[in-house]
Amino acid sequence: MKPKDIKISCDESAAGPMPGIADCGRLSYAIFQTAKHHRALAGDLLRPLNLCPGQEILLMRLCDKAQQTQTQLLECLKVEPSTVTKAVQRLQAQGLVKRVPSATDGRSHLIQLTDEGRELKKRIVKMWSELDRVTSENLTPDEYQTLCNLLEKVSANVATRGESHS
Hints:
Layout: H1 21-24, H2 26-46, H3 55-64, E1 67-68, H4 70-77, H5 81-93, E2 97-101, E3 109-113, H6 115-135, H7 141-164
Antiparallel strand pairs: 1-3, 2-3
Helix pairs in contact: 2-6, 3-6, 4-5
């Protein structure tokens, strides 16, 4: 059966008990549950680094590109402006990032890693490797690759759809 042939029906007028959310949207519910548990595990693994989920991604983005405006971080991370503002403020308070005035735009600041922020990179990479290991520990190498490929497709589907509704 091709994915386009899959029909999901949750007709409220059907006889019998009302189907639950897990019945109507099995895939979406599985993704929701997985994301919830994955984020909790990430939080547990990030706690010794004094980071919250999402902050490590912002730091790694700054490792990839030395300095960025908050707008550039917003575009890359696809989160709400307040999320980036709060994350930058918290990371700045911890001494992991600093804000410096832009040389080309007097109205904006660039976010840069401090030496302490750069030093965290190895620990973040190690943490993500452990998260990946735990997440995939019961998968064969082929299943791992297939799951990654399928999740990338699903993510692209949802991202494209979300952008058209913005």
